[in-house]
Fold:
Amino acid sequence: MATETPGRNPLQGIKVMVIDDSNTIRRSAEIFLLQAGCTVILAEDGFDALAKIADHQPDLVFVDIMMPRLDGYQTCALIKKNSRFHTMPVIMLSSKDGLFDRARGRMVGSDQYLTKPFTKESLLKAVAAHCNAAAA
Structure:
């Protein structure tokens, strides 16, 4: 495991939003992201998230697909249709790993699809891939 030198952490200060109706998933993601130096914003569903996106303007959003009220597909589509946020990377989180689900995620504009349960490594790799690409 590489040692992290202060100021050299590539994920330091990246603002990440995690939208999931499961408290366990939100907390797991939050712990992994905070350990990596990210700033974390949590939301319980799409409505909660849309209000917070305008206030916090995250660099990247993880969104669960299966949520009450406004599901992940609808939430992603609304983010991508907004002229202020359409370039914001949105990564779908789902326990479903079917081709149809992945295709539907792409259709609404998602940038990546992570299957649950995710690992710390897969979560951080996704953040690094999209945020370093955005910064380049």
The beta strands are 15-19, 39-43, 60-64, 90-94, 112-115. The longest helix spans residues 120-135. The first strand starts at residue 15 and ends at 19. The helical segments are 23-35, 46-56, 72-81, 99-107, 120-135.
